[in-house]
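Example record

One chain of 563 residues, shown exactly as stored in the release files.
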Amino acid sequence: MWKRYVLVVAVVGVAGVGLSLRPGDKVRARPPAESAAGAAVEKDAERRPAVSTMAVQASTIVHRVNVSGTLRAADEAVVTARSAGRVVWVIGKEGTPVRQGQVVIRLDDTDAQARVRSARAALEGARARLKQAKASATQQTTATDSGIRNAEAAVAAAEAALKQERTNAEAQEAALNAQVKAAEAALDAAQSQLALRRKGARDQERSMAEQSVRLAQATYDNAKTNYDRALKLFKTGAIAKAELDSAETQMRVSKAQLESAKEQLSLVETGSREEEIQAAEAAVRQAEQGLAVARANLKQLDVARGRVTIAEANLRQAKAGLDAARANRQVNVVRDQEVLAAETAVRQAQEALTLALQELDYMQIKSPVDGVVSKKQVEVGQSISPNVTLLQLAATDALYFEASVPELQATSLRAGQKVELRVDALAGGQASLYSDSKTQAIEGSVEKVVPVVDQQTRSFTVRVTVPRHASLMPGMFARGSVIVARHEKAISVPRDVLVEKGDRRTVFVVEDGVARARSVTTGVVDGNSVQITKGLAVGDQVVIVGQQTLADGDQVRVVTPGR
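Predicted structure tokens for this chain:
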């Protein structure tokens, strides 16, 4: 007699494997019996074991290694003082979070403040002296340049004056010499006239007199032409007045010589009377007086030469003034040196102020990193020395996750593998990367597996790089899931589908209403799913409910077939 089985069908959820009972699957209803034979068959089928099945499908299987451990600071920092002093304030207890640049210790800065005030006063004084030195140098340079320009102008004027005096002297000398020569010629003519008056004339003398007239006429014509040309040049400013006077004198002398030659000719032709002789004698006396006056006028050259001498002296004096003005440039060099010295003093005062401000800044000791106080070694009122550790900080800008991994699992870990971390301390409203998660999920990567096994626990230490996150602190407990491998298009089934007897693992597959036991080889376990590497194929109907009571070859009734 067939034993009747009572079956309770449970719905099994399979996460992440792609193998599940699909929504909408229904138990196949048997068609109503159309005959007595059909009723008998139906009754016989109801006596068969009822099972539920699912169709085997290919999906992605992720091989994970779960670990747990602690967040640790990648870097440790110490806080020291750069100057000695007395502590007037220190940050709170150990575990206090700090930011980079935050003041964590204050020293008594009374003396440092006084040094800053003194350095600032010294800097202001140095700047004032520099300003005065620059003003003095500028004034001296301006005066020197002006003196040089004035001296150069005086030299140019003296040179022009000397040139003019020399020109005037030369022209006056030429004119006076011409006057003397003219007076001498007039005297000679007067004396010759007198001799003729006294002796009478001969044919030879008449011929000579006529020749003298012709010569005197030619001389006069030439002198007249020269005078007219000189007059035009003088009017245009081309020659000096002295040159014009000289041309005029020569013209008058030649005219007088012409008249004398004509009178001489007349005497030769007519002979002389007593009154003519007396007149000739008077003319000689007059010519002698004219010569004496002309020679006396030569003394005027001494005055002109004296003016030249004075002009030369003025030029020498102007040049001496120019040399003196140029020599004042050496004073400018001294002023420039004073400016350089004042600038050096300003730089030194600025450096002293910078140093004083730096020492004042040293009175406020700041955190070198973002982190938390891990150890406090100083208290208010304590006198400290430079380079002595006052605080120890665990840096939070660079954290890592450290966990122990059993040696059997450690062999599958490699540097660079992705790791999902969850920090329990960030649950309950804390920031989360996943809105539906109660704990913080963070992506890291395996940095290294320390190649030393713990002899007691038979485990290795794995170190995971953790990205910076404001909520993370050293010492937090975290759980990690290392993604070792991903198997694409893999066959998997729920773990409770397996029927294990010793080392043998079996699954039941329904073929034409008959349960067939198949030995399978398992692979990666992913949550509630297990990879089947051998024994199943895509599309096989695997028994998921009722398999524990089946035997190979049992006829079964499928109540929830998978598709």
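Notes: The chain has a mean pLDDT of 81.
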